[in-house]
Structure formats: C-alpha cells, structure tokens
Amino acid sequence: MSFARIVNRRAIYFLGSVAAGATGAAGLASSDFNGSFFNGNNNNPKNNGSSWWKGLAGTSAAAAPALRVAEVEKGKTPEDFQQVYNAIAKKIIDDDEYDNYIGYGPVLVRLSWHSAGTFDKNDNSGGSYGGTYRFPKETNDPSNKGLQNAKAFLEPIYEQFPWISHGDLYTLGGVTALQEMQGPKVPWRPGRVDLPESATPENGRLPDAENGADYVRNFFKRFGFTDQEVVALIGAHALGKTHMANSGYEGPWGAATNTFSNEFFVNLLNEQWKKEKTEAGNSQYNSPSGFMMMPTDFALKEDNTYLKYVKKYAENQDVFFEDFKNAYKKLLENGIEFPEGTPTIVFKTLDEQEQ
Ligand code: HEM
User: Fold this and answer.
1) What range does the record give for the signal peptide (predicted)?
2) Can you tell me which atom of ligand 1 is nearest the CA of 247?
C-alpha cells in the first residue's frame, strides 16, 4: 500500500512502510499522475526538442544559467520506479560474487556520483540530467575506469524498463545501492531527459585524488557545495575499494565494504597511517589493518574546518547519514528544475517489502 502526502503543494510518495506509517495520508491513485509534468519523455536520445531547457530568451548574458526542466517519463508512477528499484536491488543480490563478493553496490554509487559529478553551476552544463555517461567520450574518460562494470550491470535493467531515461537510471541505481547497503533513505525525483551526444561534457571534470584540501575545496565550488557537504559526500568511501587497474590506488578504506556506515571517518581518525607510493607512482596512506586513504581523503584530516566535520561524523553516524542524504540528493539534482507536481519518491527496501 502506498501513500501520498501533499506538503507545500509538492507530492511526496513514501513507498517504504516506515515512512508510510508516519504519513497517515491519502491513498495513491493513478489519477494522481495526470499532472502536466507528463509531457512525452520517451527517452529518445535524439530528443532535440527545446523543452528541456528553461529558455533564456529575453534575459541578459549575466542572468543565471538556464536550468534543465525535469519531465517525468510519460504515464509513469512512483510504483513504476519502485519496480526499477526492485529489479536493481534483486540483481545486486543475484550477482553478489562481483569484486570478490563486495558486490555491485559500491560501483553503482560511484557511477551515480560520476554521472552527476561533471556538473558546472557556472553554465549548468554536465550533471546527471542528460545521461551523457552512456556516450563513449564520457564512458572512456580515464576518470571513469571501472564504471563500465556498473554500466554493464544496468544494461539488462534498461532492457526491462526501456522507458526510463539514462539519467534517472544512473541516479536511481546509486540510491537503490545505497539503501540496500543499509544507508539512509534518499528521497529521489524522476524526470531527467536523455540529451544528445553533443551535450557530453569534455573529459577532465572529475576530481584527481593526488591533491590536498585547497584543491578539494576549490573543486567542489563548481557544484556550490559547502565544506560540511564535501566531507559528508566523501564519507561514501566507506564503500567498496580502490583498484590498481582503474586508478593506480589499491585497497579498501575500511572493513565493511558493502555496508554504508561512518567507518571512513572513524578509520581516518584512528588508524596509524603511513604515506607510501603505489606501484603506479601515486601517493597512498596505508594502515596496519590493511586500509588505505588517498591524498584527497587524508586532506579532510589535515584541514581544520574539514576535520571538525570528520570528528562530528566519526562520533555520530546518525548525523552523518542525515547530512550525507541531503548532500547526495543535491548532487544528483544539481542543475535541474523539478516542476511543481513532480513526485518525490522514498523507496521501500527489499527487506521492508518482505515484512
Ligand atoms: C575528491 C573527491 C573524490 C575523489 C578524488 C575520488 C576518487 C576515487 C577513486 C580514485 C576511486 C577508486 C576507483 C577504483 O580504483 O576503482 C574511488 C572509488 C569510489 N568512490 Fe570516490 N572520489 C571522490 C569522491 C566521491 C564521492 C563524492 C562519492 C559518492 C558520493 C564517491 C564514491 C566512491 C565509491 C563508492 C567508490 C568505490 C567504487 C568501487 O568499489 O568500485 N567518491 N573514488
């Protein structure tokens, strides 16, 4: 049973039993989805229509850059997106042998971040909206090495749900993986529209880990993130591992590689770190427990402002989860305007659905 609640004239759809229990609101009927936000997004990569730009006509060159306007896939309801969530979640379980039984969760979170991590707020280019990661220029960006595994993982999902836009699929993949790895519920909004290949950003927009705090702070200015949001986001490195063949780093940041937690911060503060060179010539901090940190990770301990948040998140996982949820949602939605009536969906985990 699903529920709808109207808050400030925006629709929030709680598909999770926990959230649903908290709403006590009206039942969700298909008639709720006849709103104007359904305007024919057919996921056509050749969609050259102008509707995905909120026009700049009549504005001066100094005006804020145009946002891209979300258009929910025609006729699709929150339940349809829950079906996509379920298919991804089940496949994560079925294909659990990937990466020595870490599974696909971490690499799916990384794909969602890299699909959004090309964003530039100065001209609203890049970002998750256009799903341009699917084009060779972006797939083959050296910074995206390893993500072809996540792309291949999602291909059969796309075949099963060919109506979904790639931007929605990549971001939903990350949200699904995060929730299934016991991370926070991330309210997610649909409506990204496939943009043509010409919208693919140039390579070089993703961060280089061989850098310190000044670089990290400056890099994330392009998104408009605060110091606190930057620290929270990088806490995602509790998940998965680095791979020599992909990045020239090797090893995990912690022990629980497929459970979302604040372990990254705890280890950053408490492990005995030794700076060493990897066989690829990169600098990497290693600990006797077999954990690692890249220079951009370690920078969070070296900068006093960042350190304040590292300590806060190491002490309190709930605070970390809340801040991560908000920053990650912002990351996935950068540069997009969601028209009034666009549903905000809180997905139910597989576990919740079994109860
Ligand atoms: C300064 C910012 C960042 C840098 C320099 C960075 C760099 C890297 C590198 C080099 C890897 C290893 C890739 C490999 O060898 O397979 C990695 C993995 C990963 N990153 Fe980041 N990252 C940053 C921020 C983020 C953010 C914001 C997120 C998510 C919100 C994220 C999520 C992940 C995840 C989940 C993995 C593990 C992937 C796997 O196990 O296959 N990273 N990152």
Assistant:
1) none
2) 15
pLDDT in tens, 301-348: 999 999 999 999 999 999 999 999 999 999 999 999 999 999 999 999
Mean pLDDT of 263-274: 98
CB atoms within 10 A of CB 218: 10
Collapsed DSSP state (helix, strand, coil) of residue 133: helix
Which spans in 95-196 are helix H? Answer: 98-101, 105-116, 136-139, 148-160, 166-180
Ligand 1 atom at shortest distance from the alpha carbon of 327 = 30
- Catalytic residue among 52, 113, 188, 253, which? 253
166 in catalytic set: no
91 CB near ligand 1 (under 6 Å):
no
Instruction: Give the closest residue to 300 by CA, choosing from 308, 292, 289.
Output: 308
Residue 74's pLDDT is 97
Question: Distance (Å, rounded) from C-alpha 289 to C-alpha 292?
Answer: 9
Ligand 1 and 164: CB distance under 6 A: no
Cα separation, 69 vs 53, whole angstroms: 6
Q: Are strands 344-346 and 10-14 parallel, antiparallel or unpaired?
A: parallel
pLDDT at 273 over 50: yes
| Residue 236 Cβ < 6 Å to ligand 1 | yes
pLDDT band at 15 (very low <50, low <70, confident <90, very high): confident
